[in-house]
Amino acid sequence: MKAKIILLITLALLAGTVCTAKENPPVPASTPSVQKQPLKRNLGCTGCHTDIKADKNHNLACSDCHLGNNAANHKKNAHKNMLAAPAAPGNMKKICGRCHKKQVATCAQSLHFTLKNAVNAVRAHFSLTPVLSDLRQIPETEKQNSKEWLVNDLLRRQCLRCHVYTAGDRYPYVQRGIGCAACHLQFTDGQLKDHVFRRPTEHQCLSCHYGNHVGSDYSGKFEHDFNWEYRTPYTTRSRYLRPYGIELHNLVPDIHSQKGLTCLDCHNGQQLSGKEKPVQCITCHRAGITSPLPANVNKEDNDFFLTTIKDGTLHRIPQLVHPAHARYRGRVACQVCHAQWGFYDRPTHLMLSYLEDADPWERLTIQSSSAAEAFLEHNLNSDDDELSPSMPDAINGKQKPGIWLMGFTQRRWKDLIIKKDNDGIIKVFRPILDLRLSAVSEDEDVLFDNLQGKGKSLLPYTPHTTGPAGLFYEQRFIHLLEKKQPKPISGQ
Q1: Element of type H or E holding 377
Q2: Mean pLDDT over each residue of the chain, to the nearest integer
Q3: What is the pLDDT of residue 46?
Q4: Could you give the CA distance from residue 427 to residue 331 in angstroms, rounded to a whole number?
Q5: What is the spatial order of strands in the sheet that 446-451 belongs to?
Q6: What is the pLDDT of residues 84-121, one digit of tens each?
Q7: Which residues are bridge partners to 348 per DSSP?
Q8: Exposed e or buried b for every residue in 208-235, given b needs 16+ CB within 10 A?
Q9: How far is CA 103 from CA 65, 116, 339, in A?
Q10: 3-state SS class at 380
Q11: What is the pLDDT of residue 13?
Q12: Cβ distance 305 to 294 under 8 Å?
């Protein structure tokens, strides 16, 4: 019996030894070293920027446009003398102009680049001289407390935030490229989507033509009031998407937009660059009579058809046959009858403030200006030290003290303003220059209070809200027509 017990214990010990040996195999005396292979990287820009692909018409080396060294594989060497924005106005002649010399030359003189009409309209309204040929000529007036200083600062830091020298405000649908890239490259939420150069789409057009300006009305967009009582959602303080900086009313789009036409179907590149006169309604609706047919309009038998740039759809163009067109031609502008609604924001109040106190603006924290909103939001709701008011100069990019704040007495889209212009033609007007300028110093001294210009505040414009004229179209303008004098009776 004792011998059996000893035998069982011996077998158990042997079994444990075998299991332990299997779970813990012997370690070799020395482990061979593993040689690390260096990471292979292709030479050139695409060795790092692997997701960058240009379109077939720009299948060039990256350094052909961005300069730098395309043969290097080290960032410091590759980026030496590199141009981050070769399409910027200061670079486009040297870079884009090598292949697109004529286009660059004409665009540089176009109103999209110079904005001279808008600049001079505001300056003339406040009796400032001389006439400027380019927005970059707006003086940086050092002497404060003068009207010239206030108006020029308004232009440089508040009005001109949507031009090709800046990448736009910090809103998702507004941020874009500069120079040629502002129109011809696609940006999403401020990030370059690709290196495909394309015709501008409405997305690019509206990155500047938003905010109750001609262009946003084409798609039926009208901004809510800034006051929190007139915006939606009414109560939330949570962040939510405001593509253009503020909520929008969805009104009736222009009939051409409803039919699928985009901006470039009427405003082609030749017109936008200033080489051709702007298109008029009668260019297509009296096709071939007053001016040559546009490139995308063709005649087939007795009909005229427009081919859309976006997808090549054919649209038959109705010609003017109603007798009213002949009766009032040359006396009444088309949109007097056909505009469905227009922008009617008046007056516009603008104040340059050097005060840190934001409490009076609690109801107006939405400003359609990201710099103003960031300042108000912080000083109203943050426990950190208050920010000093400042915003950048949109022409040279320099940060300057003081911040422009804005509000309106009322915002409406009804009751079109119909008036007779200086040329005798009855047109639609809007209060473009119905401005009130104020300024207050950091010591709470009132520098300006409700400064108004001496020029006309109502200016003619063309609402892009075309639709049917309706039965009572004449009631819009009949009171402005000159009454014909009765013919004298013969013999008297």
Answers
A1: helix 370-381
A2: 87
A3: 85
A4: 9
A5: 403-412, 344-353, 435-440, 446-451
A6: 999 999 999 999 999 999 999 988 888 889 999 999 99
A7: 408, 435
A8: bbbbbeebbbbbbbbbbbbeeeeeeeee
A9: 17, 19, 34
A10: helix
A11: 43
A12: no
* Of 17-31, 243-257, 377-391, the least confident: 17-31
Structure tokens at 321: 């046959």
Question: Residue 23, exposed/middle/buried by CB under 10 A (0-12, 13-18, 19+)?
Answer: exposed
Q: Whole-model pTM?
A: 0.85
Cα 439 from chain centroid?
Answer: 27
Whose CA is closest to 48, among 81, 68, 78, 82? Answer: 78
Sequence-separated (6 or more) residues with CB below 8 Å from residue 118: 159, 160
Enter the tokens of residue 219. 């798609």
> How far apart, in Å, are the Cα atoms of 292 and each of 266, 283, 305?
14, 8, 14
User: Is the model's pLDDT at 8 over the cut of 80?
Assistant: no
Provide the strand spans (E) within 92-183.
none
Do 232 and 224 touch, CB atoms closer than 8 A? yes
Task: Quote the radius of gyration of the chain (alpha carbons, Å).
Answer: 33
DSSP codes joined into one string, 270-289: HHHTTSSPPP-HHHHHTTTT
312: left (phi over 0), alpha (psi -120 to 50) or beta: left
Q: How far apart are CA 440 and CA 448, in angstroms?
A: 7
Please state the rounded mean pLDDT for residues 201-226: 94
Question: Both tokens of residue 477?
Answer: 């303008």
Residue 346: strand, helix, or coil: strand
Q: What is the DSSP letter of 54?
A: B
CA distance 72 to 209: 42
Per the omega criterion (within 30 degrees of 0), is the bond before 488 cis? no
For residue 470, the one-letter residue type is G
Residue bearing tokens 């300028």: 437
In eight-state DSSP terms, residue 39 is P
Question: Does residue 188 or residue 459 have the better pLDDT?
Answer: 459
**Whole-angstrom Cα distance, residue 39 to residue 41?**
6
Q: What is the DSSP letter of 424?
A: S
CB atoms within 10 A of CB 46: 14
What is each CA distance from 242 to 245, 382, 462, in whole angstroms? 5, 22, 27
Of 100, 217, 147, 129, nearest to 462 by C-alpha is 217
Distance CA(192)–CA(429), nearest Å, equals 38
End-to-end CA distance of the chain: give it in Å, rounded. 162
Separation of alpha carbons 453 and 122, rounded Å: 9
Residue 386 amino acid letter: E
* Ranges assigned E (strand) in 374-470: 390-392, 399-401, 403-412, 417-420, 426-430, 435-440, 446-451, 459-460
Query: Which pLDDT score, from 0 to 100, does residue 63 have?
Result: 93
